[in-house]
Amino acid sequence: MKTMLLENEYKKPLPKILPETEKYWQAARRHELILQRCKTCGQIMYFPRIVCFKCLSDDIEWFKSKGYGTIYSYTIIHYQIAHKSFEPDVPYIYAIIELDEGVRMISNVTNIDPLKVKIGMRVKVTFEDVTDEVSIPKFEPS
Amino acid sequence: MSIKGKCAIIGYGETEFAKSKDSAGRSNYTEQCNAAILAIEDAGLNKSDIDGLISICPLDQKSSWTMDLVEYLQLYPKFLDNLYFGGASGNAGILYAAAAINSGLCSNVLLVGGSVMDAKQAYEHGLENSVDFERDFDTIYGPMIDNSAYALIKQRYKYEFNATEEQFARVVINARYHASRFPNALLKNLVTVEDVLNSRIICDPMHLYEIVMPCTGGCALILTSFERAKCSKNKPVYLLGGGQAFDRGMWTPAYGSNPSITSSPVKQAAKQAFDMSGLKITDMDFVQLYDCFTITVIISLEDIGCCEKGQGAEFVEKTDLTYKGTLPLNTDGGQLGRGQPYGACHFMHTVEAARQLMGRAGQLQVKDTKFGLVNGNGGSMANECTLILGNEIP
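Above: the input entities. Below: the C-alpha cells describing the complete assembly.
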C-alpha cells in the first residue's frame, strides 16, 4: 500500500504555509482566491504581506477575489531543466494573470491547447488539489 | 558632492573563458584569484597596495566568500563588501568603491567576480535559494528561472510594440560578429537571422541563441583615486557618472511597482548617471549593455535614451551596432557572444569599456573614443546600475 501512495505523491514544489500566508492557503483549499486590501489606503495586494506596501499600515483585511482576469503575458515552457518535476508537463503555460481587482499574479493556464493562448485572453481561476492540505490556484479560459 | 572624475579604473584582468565541459582543473578560486592577479599586475600595483576588496560570491559558495578570499590571497583590506543583486552588482561595486575611496576609507580597491558554473548548477541554486514569496507564489508554477521571466517580458514587448523575431535576432548577429573577432570569446561562429530563428525554442518566444551560455571565467578591475590614477602606466578610465535603480524582487516580473514590464529601472539609473556626468546619450562613443537575453538589450537601449519606448527592436535593425558603426554595442561580443561566467559577467562589460577607453581593443577598437556607457542588469530587469566612463573629464 505504501508503494501505491508514493506513486501518487505530488512531486512538484509545494508552498510552505507561513503565518502571513496561512489564510490564503486555507481559502485556496476551499477553492476561494483571496486577496488583501489595506483598510487605511485601499491598496490591494498579491502576494500576502504583513503590511501595506503603499502606506505601511498593518491594518489589512482579506476579501474574496471574483477570480476573473486577463493574460498579461505568458510563455510556453518547452524545455525545463530547473524544476525537473515539471518536465513531464512540457509544453505548458507559465503566465502573468492580471486579475480584475488590478493585481498581477504568476500562474499556469490549463485546459487549453498552449498554442491557442494569447495575451488579453479572459481567464477564470480553477483549483488543483495537489495534496490533502494544498490546493493551487490556476487559470483556464472563461 | 559628486564622485564625478574622482576615481578611475587603472587596470583589469580576465581569465580565459571556457565551456563547462572544458573546465577541468578550474575552480571558483582559479577564476577569482587569477583575474585578480592579472588586474593587479595590469594596474602596475603590488598585492600590498590593495586595501579594498569587493567580490561577487559564486552561486555555490557561502555568503562569507569575500572574507574567505581575504584569507586565501592573504589580503589586508580596510574596506570589504560582497554584493548580491545579480548582474548590476559589478557596477554597483564600482560606485560603492568610488564612494569609499573618495571619503578616505581606502585607496585601491580590487573588484573581482568569477566562477565555474554550468547551467544545471545555476538552476539548482535558483531552486534552493529562492526567498519565501518566490518559492510559494512563483516556483510552484514551474518557472524556468530567468529564461521564463525574460520570455514573459519579450512576449509582452512583442504584443505591445509589434516587434519581430527577425529584429531580436539582430542582437545575436551583432554579438557573434564581435565575438568572432575577440580572442576571449566562446561563441565565435557567425549566425544569420535564420540560424537564430531555427535554434531551439526554450521558453516561447525565447530561442536558444537569444540566451546566454553559462561558462567558466573570471574578471577583475582596480579602481583608484584621481590623484593616484595620474601616475598609472595605463590611461586612466575615469568614473564620470553612476546611477542605480531597483523596482522589484529578483526573479518574477509579475509583481513590483513598475506598471509595465516592458519599461525598466535602467531609465532611472541611466538618468542619474548622465546627470552626474553632465553628458548625454549622443556624447557616448559606445555602449556596453548587459545582454543576458536579446530583450534585455532592446529594453536597455530604449531606457538609456537611444530611441523612444517601443522603437528598440527597429533601432537594432536599422543601426550599425558594430565597432565601426554609428552606435558600437558590446564590442567584445558581450555575454551572448562570449558566454556568461557568473560573477565575471558582472564586470566584463565594464572591462570592455575600460579596454576601449584605454585604446587597447585591437582590431575591435572604436576610433577616437572618449566616453562610453555601461549598464549592469540583475534579476528579471529588476535592478540596474549604469556607469558613464571616459578617458577625459568633461
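Note for the figure: The beta strands of chain A are 34-38, 44-45, 60-64, 68-77, 92-99, 104-109, 122-129, 135-141.
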